[in-house]
Amino acid sequence: MSRRAIKAINWTPLVERIPESEKTTLAAFKAKSDQFLRRMTANPEAAPKLDWAYYKRTITTPGLVDKFQKEYESLTIPYPPDNYTAKIEAKEKETLVKVQEYLDYAAENISKSQQEIERIKGLLPFAEMTLEDFRDMYPESALNPDKPTMWPHTPETQPPDDIQYGTGGSH
Fold it and tell me: What was the pLDDT predicted at 170?
């Protein structure tokens, strides 16, 4: 494994897509991200090279510098394994499929809506429409003179069908 890092992040597209209410949260996240990036780039990618010849000249204990040099050069600090990149890439692919499905769904709805708009544009304006024209175009919404209704003409405010009015007899 090697140390990989993004050198710079283009925050502009993200800022443009989030709602106004989330911008403070994004600003806090960006500040934290920048802080981590600064801390990481402040450290060298490789361990510093030591001048072993200098230490051999200045330290008089025999074999001590050679022992330290051997241990230092054999020391390997493993970079943590990357357990998340594959999961993130798989999640990204799933999300892209869902996004495409939503885009297809939205395009279909837009198409249907455009057709409905064109249909509505082709109708008579309500100001020029007669009650008969309205009944012909919207039979489910128009008042039926053969079956009068009571105001406010909604289904829940109508009396049951089995009640008869105007029969002249007593109930």
Answer: 54
Q: Which residues contact 68 (CB under 8 A, 6 or more apart)?
A: 55
Q: Give one DSSP letter per residue of the chain, joined into a string.
A: ------S----HHHHHHS-GGGHHHHHHHHHHHHHHHHHHHHS-SSPPPP-HHHHHHH--STTHHHHHHHHHHH---PPPP--SHHHHHHHHHHHHHHHHHHHHHHHHHHHHHHHHHHHHHTSPPGGG--HHHHHHH-TTTSPPTTS---TT--GGGSPPTT---S--S--
Neighbours of 56 (CB within 10 A): 13
Report the C-alpha gap between 16 and 24 in whole angstroms.
13
> Amino acid identity, residue 136?
D
Alpha-carbon distance of 33 to 41, in angstroms, equals 12
Owner of token pair 């990204």: 92
Q: Model confidence over 45-60: pLDDT tens digits? A: 777 788 889 988 898 8
pTM over 0.70: no
The count of C-alpha atoms lying within 13 angstroms of the C-alpha of 151, restricted to the half-sphere facing its C-beta, is 0
